[in-house]
Amino acid sequence: MIVFGIETSCDETAAAVVVDGKEILSSIVSSQVNIHHPYGGVVPELASRKHIEAIVPVVNGALTAAGIDKKMIDAVAVTRGPGLVGALLVGFNFARAFAFTLDIPWVGINHLEGHINSVFLELDPPPFPFVALLASGGHTSIYYVTSHTGYALMGQTRDDAAGEAYDKVAKMLDLGYPGGVVIDRMAEKGDPEKISFPRPFIDKSTFDFSFSGLKTAVLRYIQNHGNGYRKQVPDIVAGFQEAVVDVLSDKICHAAKVKNCNHIALVGGVAANSRLRKKVMHEASRDGLTVHIPSVGLCGDNAAMIAGVGYHYLKTGISSDLSDDVYSRIRR
Ligand code: KG4
Ligand code: ZN
Fold first, then answer.
1. Could you read off the pLDDT of 216-257 as tens digits, one per residue?
2. Same domain, 107 and 144
3. Which numbered ligand comes closest to the C-alpha of 177?
4. Which of 32, 240, 270 for a ligand 1 pocket mutation test, highest count of atoms within 8 Å of Cβ?
5. 269 lines ligand 1 (CB under 6 A)
6. The whole model's pTM is what?
7. Do residues 236 and 119 touch, judged by C-beta distance below 8 A?
8. For FRET with 150, which of 9, 113, 114, 132 sits at 20 to 30 Å CA-CA?
């Protein structure tokens, strides 16, 4: 089954062609990073306008790169939520009109389910069940995953998401947006042991996370050091990153242990983090666990993961109705 995927939940306009939920024929992602960069975060109104400009070229680009005509598409899958409503509406309305004119089924997809299923676009997907850490700009959660569309939430952040903490710390240090990639690179030049930041909720009693106190600890450190902090930026970001990575890796490995499960997946934008990937691999090999992390291009927002999970709904006959609508917050 050839599924055409569309994703516009935040600041990436994406389209992809995926066969049978696993083989990517094309995946085009048009990023708006340059538009939002001066503001240090995503401006919803600008995001919607840019999606409107980009959606047709991105869709055409995905068809051309896949080498298929639109008549060959069997179904359309599109992100329905959670995300920015104005941004979601662009992709959602495009997708249902596209499917309507082609007279094919279409299905609205939960963006988080897309991230969880991103591991199935790689050659060595995990067997069920597995535990997944989803860490992105909007969410940080651990799931016990039993099928492509079946999963139970084990814990989640009580305040900021991990990616949001990266972005906010980068903003405090004038490093630009999005902060994850910049901090990832800069941390390599710093000493992660030099400045010790708190590891919130690292105790084993909960799978919940909290990153806002850590963010405040970094802010206090900056405020307490006057202009002197400027020479310490690599050490500050390395210390901050080490705290985030310690908590994330500890909790996902512990979740596997509690569930008596040997397989771990890391998904979402923060799964692209080089230190996190290394640390989880290391801890998991100590515990005899296998780790599944998508390639960097599939960690961030993309439409291939949406087409991938869409296939699993569509093949069991589940599709959306023309009257369906988008949603901004988590819903199942
Ligand atoms: O999954 P994603 O593309 O969008 C959301 O659904 O939120 O995640 C974006 C988040 C941003 O906060 C960004 O700073 C973070 O992922 N990120 C990273 C890295 N690359 C992206 N965080 C840490 N290290 C990275 N290499
Ligand atoms: Zn995402």
1. 999 999 999 989 899 999 999 999 999 999 999 999 999 999
2. no
3. 1
4. 270
5. yes
6. 0.95
7. no
8. 9
Q: Is 162 in the pocket of ligand 1 (CB under 6 A)?
A: no
Asked if residues 86 and 44 have their Cβ atoms less than 8 Å apart, the reply is yes
* Residues 6+ positions from 43 with CB-CB distance below 8 Å: 35, 36
Q: What is the pLDDT of residues 120-172, one digit of tens each?
A: 999 999 999 999 999 999 999 999 999 999 999 999 999 999 999 999 999 99
- Does ligand 1 lie within 6 Å of residue 21's CB atom? no
Burial class of residue 249, CB neighbours in 10 A (0-12, 13-18, 19+) = buried
Q: Residue 245: inside a domain, yes or no?
A: yes
Q: What is the pLDDT of residues 166-219, one digit of tens each?
A: 999 999 999 988 899 999 999 999 999 999 999 988 887 899 999 999 999 999
Tell me the residue range of the domain where 71 lies.
2-116+299-315
Residue 23 bridge partners (DSSP): 19
How many Å apart are CA 48 and CA 86, to the nearest integer? 5
Rounded mean pLDDT, 79-86: 96
Separation CA 36–CA 47 (nearest Å): 8
Same domain, 139 and 283: yes
Three-state DSSP class for residue 96:
helix
Strand partners, 157: 209
Helix residue ranges, H only, the chain: 33-36, 44-66, 85-102, 111-117, 162-172, 179-187, 212-224, 233-258, 274-287, 296-299, 304-314
> Is 171 inside a domain boundary?
yes
